[in-house]
Each structure stands twice: as C-alpha cells, then as structure tokens.
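Worked Example 4.2. Consider the chain below.
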Amino acid sequence: MKKTIIWSSILFVTFSLFFLGCQKAKEGADLVFINGQIITVDETSPQAEALAVKRGKIVAAGSNQEIEDYIKEQTEVIDLAGKTLIPGFIDSHAHFMSVGRSKMTIDLRDCRSWDDIVAKVKEAVKRFQPGEWIIGRGWHQEKWDKTPDPNVDGLPFHHQLSAVSPDNPVLLTHASGHSSLVNAKAMELAGISRETADPAGGEIVRDKDGQPIGVFRETAQSLISRAYAQDQAEKTPEEKEQELRKIVKLAEQECLAKGITYVHDPGVSFEIIDLYKRMIDENQLDIRLYPMINESNDRLAQKIAKYRFEGYGDYHLTVRSIKRFIDGALGAHGAWLLEPYLDLPSSTGLNTTPVDVIRQTALLAIENDFQLCTHAIGDRANREILNIYEEAFRMHPEKKDLRWRIEHAQHLHPQDIPRFGQLGVIASMQGIHCTSDGPWVLKRLGPQRA
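Applying the procedure from the previous section yields the following structure tokens:
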C-alpha cells in the first residue's frame, strides 16, 4: 500500500513546486530515483536525472550528484537505467465506478455482430444461477459487420437474446452508456409492456405494432435499472459495502496501471462520496478523485453545504462540482439538435433533463460556490446550456472563478463557438468521440453540420 501511494504521488504532484532550489535542509528521502530521463513539466528545467521523495511528495529533482545527499540508510533507491519517468495523467472525464463495474461484467467491446453478443450471453448463463442478473457493456451497433434481422433503426429485437437466457434478466449497456439492450426476463421484472409510456427524456424502442423490442434509450433505461436496483436491495448493508469497495479497487487498479493518478468522476451520489471518504480515512484509496455530484435539486439544497471538500485526505478527494445531463449521445440519436437528424428526420434528439431543472441547478451551484458541469452533445443542447450559464453569471457577476464546464461540447452551431470564450466556460472535450462517433457523424448530421 505504502509503495503504491508513493508511486501515485510521484506521478501526480507538479514537479515545479519542489525543485532543488527550494530545499534548504537535505533531510533523508524515503525514495530516490536515479539515472533517469525525468520529465518535470517545468519550462525552466524540463528534465532531470534524479528525483527525491519524502512522505509521498517530491522534495527535490536534479542531477544524480545533486540528489545524492538525500540518500540515507533508510532510503529506497531505484535505478531507472535511462528509462523515462513522467507525471501521472489526469483524466478529466471518466466514470470511475463504471470502470470498476466493467471488470465484473461481460465485455462486449469486441463484438462484431448481434450474434456475437448473444453467444457471449449464452456462455455467461452457464456461470450464473437462475434469477441472477447478467450485466454487460460496450456494444456498438455501428461496429457490427451486419445489421440484425429483424431490427428497428439497426437495433435488434430481444427474442434471440431471450431464447438463450430465459431464467436470467439481462442488461447490456451501449458503449456510450446512453442506451441498453435487455431480454424478456428483465422487461418482465421491470413491468414493461406495450402500455408502458415513454418517460420524459427517454424512449422505449418499439416495433410497428407498438411492442417493446428490448432497446431502451436515455432515461428509459431507468425503468430497467430500477428493477435491477430492487434486486440488489435485498443484499445486506455489509454485502453492498463490500461489493462497492471491490468496484472502487478494481477501478483504481485499472487507472493506476495506465498511469492515471487523478480522475474527474462525472456523476456520483452523496453515498458514493461517503464511501470514498471512508476508504481514504482507512488508507484504502491511493488514487485521487474529483467527483461531480449528481443528485436532485431538492437533495442538493439539503446537503450541498456539507459536501464541499478541498484536498480532503492529503488531496485524495476534492468535491466542489455538480453534474447535469441535458441530452443524450449522437450514436443513439439522443443528442439534442437544432435541426432533425439526416437519417431520422422525425427526431431532433432528446432533452433528457428539463431546461428549467438545470436552470435551478445553476442557481444552486453559483450561490454555493460550486462548479457546474453539464453534459451537452447536440448543438441545441449546447446553446441551451450556454444560455443558462450566461443568465446565472449575469445574476452573480462577482462569481467569475468557478470554472463552469460543458462536458463534451461535441456539436456546436458556429454562432455559439465564441460564446465559450466570452463567458469563460470550459469546453471539456474528449478526443475519443472523434473516433467513436466518427464513423456515423456524416450519416447522422450530413456534411454541412459534420
């Protein structure tokens, strides 16, 4: 544990704060790296040969000779032998708990057809008891080699899946997280029928006769997830706690193995923040986290003042941010557009959270000195959020340093692009969308908007 903490701290802390010139007394270090190509991210001294660490923090960087005095009897010395040592990566948008859960579910990222997915579920059924939920994630219909038959907008009917899993509810989430495939058992437990209405901001995909085909988009996914949550509610508090801790550790291991030492976690509950705090207090969390609270406005109003932490637990936890979603994803036709989709002219996407609700959130955030980070992918979604932010800033002109963000800011009307700079709004963009949405952006939007 101690060594892991030291490594993550080495990679995270900014080198420029701890250079040799700042050190007066050369107290013995806990750990020293020598003979390396150490990238400091400091313009005045961009590279060092050696590095000294004390109590998980960098105390000096320089040449081997300059760092030699930090080596005492208790010091661990690592010879890099010319290898490169770099600061850790900060992931500005990663659903941390989902990373951990993905290690406990069926990985569908490599599936190249609906048949591949069905085959994976059929194999998984052998490992589960009847009645147990089978969870998977990562499928993407645009990566399939062939279109399922029958289908609605390229999405399959559930019958083939239901046939191989008659006694297990199955929930398979899209790679984007904005739609899900389920089987008949899952719909039965959720009480889904032809008469079930679409929830606000979501859609139950149906056949020409109005029957659900087993695909749930955006907020409609909650109809299924509630049934899953009800099943999980039967576990004891101790069982739930242990499972959540396992998820956290799996996520942490995956991140640290990739050199990610700090994660902006977009959308967690008060209860998960409490879990993070407990694990930090017990010295059980090595990674650093910046969670964004995703709770109702009523719960925020009740608790937000008690959930602001700056650098809690030696800077392992900072909470001063709120998350909201105004639309869905482009791949699932959920991004909220100013004009209809080229390949689905009847739709301009989905407004998943009412504008007035987000406007109320903005006031809660700015009045409590919280950052607001809102998911917006379509051009209509981005415009609405910019309008909300502008209104809040106008009402509170003294609040200019809260660094409000639009998460993704993926498709923008040209008139709205300069507004980011004018308002001081951060476009929190993820490069992966260039490759994940690239294959069908022309089909969805046409050449002019793309």
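The chain has 16 helices and 24 strands. The longest strand covers residues 260-268. Compare this with Example 4.1 before moving on.
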